[in-house]
Specification:
It is built from 16 helices and 26 strands. With about 550 residues, it is an alpha/beta fold. The strands form seven sheets. A nine-stranded mixed sheet has the order 2-1-10-9-11-12-13-14-15, with helices on both faces. The protein is globular.
C-alpha cells in the first residue's frame, strides 16, 4: 500500500475530479515503477551504485561538480529548507533563475525534500510572478541574486510568499550557499509516494493564459524510460548543452533530468546564447548533444558550417514545429540529421519523435514507445490515414491541471488532446499541420500555417516568418504572412510578389499568402515559441 509523504495537501486537493483524469498506461516492463519512490534519490543518490559517482554532472565556466559532489550540495540545501526554513513535504517552493549550477542544485534539493518545485521563467515580471504566487501559494522562493527585483516587487503585492532566499550570491551571509555551508550534508530523501507531486510547471504562454500542469515523481521517471531510453539514447560520456530554460519542461528534461538518467553531464553557459556563441561553446566544451529551437538552428547553421562541430552527435529540436527547410539547412551544414519531437508541458516531454535513419522527411516521427497516438475527428473517432484531424495521445503520463476548468478540454474519455492538427501516414508517421486553433480555413480549403512558413523559409530573402489566418469579407479568412528579412533585402511590392510566386511553386497554389507584412522581429515566448495569438491581435 502506497503512503503519501506530503503533509501539505494543497496541490493534491486541487487535482481534477476523477472523471476528468487521463488514463495512464504502463505497458512496457521498464514502466513498472515502484509505488514508493523519490525521483532525485533514483537519479542522484543511486548514481554511485550505477558507477557514476565520479562522473562530471554539472559544469560551468567557473566549476564542475561530480555526481557525488552534487549530491552533497543538494543535501545541504535540503537541510536548509527543512531545518532552517521549516518547510514540510507538499509545501511549494518558487524557483527563479536562469540555467546555472545554482538553479539545478536548488531544484534537486526542493524535490528531494518532498517539496513541490514551482520554477518560473527568468524574464517574467512582477505581475506575472504574482499570478503564479496566487495560484501555487508558495511560502518560500529561491531566487538568483541577479533576478531579485521583480520577485521582491511581486512579494510586496502578494504576501503569501513570506521568504525569499537568494542563490548565486556568494558575498551575502544570508544567501543559500552561506546557509548551506554549515550543514552536515547528511539528508535522507523524503520517502515520497510515486504519485506524490514533484513540480508545477506553468505553461510558457503561447495562448496568453498560462496553466499549471501537475507532474509527479512517477511521471518524471516514466518519461525517462520513454523518449530518452528509446529515441535519444544518451550515454554516460555525453556532454549536453542548450538554450531551453530549466523552468520549461523541455529544458528541465533535456538539460537536467535526462542527462542524469544516462549518467551524463550538463554544461550551463553564463548568460544568454547567441547563434555564433553557441557554436563556439559547443566546440570549446566538446558538447555531444545540443537542445534548442528551430529558429536558433537556422541562425546557427552558417556558423556551424564555417567552424565545424566535430564532437556534436545529436541535435534535438522541439518547442515548436521544425520546418523541413531548417532540417535540411542544418544537415547540409553539419551532416547531422535533426532529432525532432513534439511534446508538451502537460505530459512533461516528448511523445512523438524519430532519430537517425528512422527520420522521414516532413514528419515529426512516430509515437514514442510507451505511448499510443491517433488522429481523430471532433467526436473522437479515428480518421482514415492521410486525413487531417486532432491528435490524441495516451501513455504513462497525462494532463492534470491545478484547479483549472480547461482540464475538460484537454482530457476526454481518458485521452489527452494537446490541441495539434496532424495526419498519420500508412507507416505510423505523424505529420504536423498546425495548432488545432491555428488551422486556417480559406474559401473552404484547410491550410496549415507551418506548411506555408516552411515554403517561405526556402526563399533566400526570408530569415523568419509566421503565418496566420486574417478575417476577410470575401473568403472568410485569408492566409497572411509576417516575414523578417535577411540583410540586404528590401520589403517592397516586388518582393511580396516574388514570395507569393515562390510559395505557389512550392506547395498547392491556393495556400499562398494573399497578404505579406515585413517586420523587424516576431513575438516569441522565452522558450522560442512563436506567439501567433499576438500576430492575430495585430491584424
Amino acid at each position: 500500500m502506497t503512503h503519501s509523504a506530503q503533509i501539505d495537501r494543497f496541490v493534491h486537493d486541487r487535482l481534477p475530479p476523477a472523471e476528468q483524469l487521463p488514463v495512464f498506461r504502463y505497458e512496457l516492463p521498464e514502466l513498472q515503477l515502484p509505488d514508493q519512490l523519490n525521483l532525485v534519490e533514483e537519479l542522484l543518490d543511486k548514481a554511485a551504485a550505477k558507477g557514476f559517482a565520479d562522473n562530471a554532472l554539472l559544469r560551468s565556466p567557473a566549476r564542475t561538480l561530480t555526481y557525488a559532489e552534487a549530491a552533497l550540495e543538494v543535501n545541504k540545501i535540503a537541510q536548509v529548507l527543512a531545518e532552517d526554513l521549516g518547510l514540510v513535504p507538499g509545501n511549494r517552493v518558487l524557483l527563479r533563475g536562469g540555467n546555472s549550477i545554482g538553479m539545478a542544485l536548488a531544484w534537486l534539493a526542493v524535490v528531494k525534500a518532498g517539496l513541490i518545485a514551482v520554477a518560473t521563467m527568468p524574464l517574467l515580471r512582477a505581475k506575472e510572478l504574482g499570478e503564479i504566487i496566487d495560484k501555487s501559494q508558495p511560502a518560500v522562493a529561491l531566487c538568483d541574486g541577479k533576478l531579485l527585483d521583480e520577485l521582491e516587487a511581486a512579494q510586496r503585492e502578494h504576501p503569501a510568499l513570506e521568504t525569499i532566499v537568494a542563490f548565486n550570491q556568494p558575498d551575502s551571509p544570508a544567501s543559500l550557499s552561506a546557509r548551506a555551508a554549515g550543514k552536515s550534508g547528511v539528508f535522507r530523501a523524503c520517502p515520497t509516494a510515486a504519485d506524490d507531486v514533484a513540480l508545477l510547471a506553468f505553461t510558457s504562454g503561447t495562448t496568453g493564459k498560462p496553466k499549471a500542469p501537475v507532474t509527479t515523481h512517477r511521471d518524471v521517471l516514466a518519461m525517462c524510460e520513454a523518449w530518452p531510453r528509446h529515441v535519444l539514447k544518451a550515454r554516460s560520456d555525453d556532454i549536453v548543452l542548450g538554450s531551453p530554460p530549466l523552468a520549461f519542461t523541455f529544458g528541465l528534461g533535456g538539460l537536467l533530468v535526462f542527462p542524469m538518467y544516462a549518467g551524463a553531464s550538463i554544461y550551463y553557459h553564463d548568460g544568454p546564447y547567441t547563434p555564433e556563441g553557441m557554436v563556439k561553446v559547443i566546440n570549446d566544451v566538446g558538447a555531444t548533444i545540443v537542445y534548442t529551437a528551430p529558429t536558433f538552428y537556422r541562425q546557427m547553421a552558417a556558423f556551424a558550417k564555417a567552424a565545424g562541430v566535430p564532437t556534436l552527435r545529436i541535435s534535438v529540436s522541439a518547442g515548436e514545429a521544425l520546418p523541413d527547410a531548417t532540417r535540411q539547412l542544418w544537415k547540409e551544414a553539419t551532416g547531422i540529421e535533426m532529432l525532432d519531437g513534439i511534446g508538451g508541458t502537460e505530459v512533461f516531454h516528448i511523445y512523438i519523435s524519430a532519430a537517425g535513419d528512422q527520420v522521414r522527411r516532413g514528419a515529426v516521427g512516430k509515437a514514442v514507445p510507451g505511448f499510443t497516438a491517433k488522429v481523430v475527428d471532433d467526436q473522437g473517432n479515428e480518421v482514415p490515414r492521410g486525413t487531417v484531424g486532432k491528435l490524441a495521445i495516451i501513455g504513462p503520463v497525462g494532463c492534470r491541471y491545478l484547479d483549472d476548468a480547461r482540464q475538460a478540454d484537454y482530457v476526454k474519455n481518458g485521452w489527452n488532446y494537446p490541441g495539434d492538427a496532424f495526419f498519420e501516414d500508412e507507416d505510423g508517421y505523424f505529420f504536423y499541420q498546425s495548432r488545432a486553433d491555428d488551422m486556417i480555413v480559406t474559401a473552404g480549403y484547410n491550410v496549415g500555417g507551418p506548411e506555408v512558413e516552411d515554403a517561405l523559409l526556402k526563399h533566400p530573402a526570408v530569415a523568419e516568418c509566421g503565418v496566420i489566418g486574417k478575417p476577410d469579407a470575401e473568403r472568410g479568412t485569408i492566409v497572411k504572412a509576417f516575414c523578417v528579412l535577411k540583410p540586404g533585402h528590401a520589403g517592397d511590392a516586388a518582393l511580396v510578389k516574388a514570395l507569393q510566386d515562390h510559395v505557389k511553386a512550392t506547395i498547392a497554389p491556393f495556400k499562398y499568402p494573399r497578404e505579406i507584412e515585413f517586420v523587424a522581429v516576431l513575438p516569441r515566448t522565452e522558450t522560442g515559441k512563436l506567439q501567433r495569438f499576438k500576430l492575430r491581435q495585430n491584424t
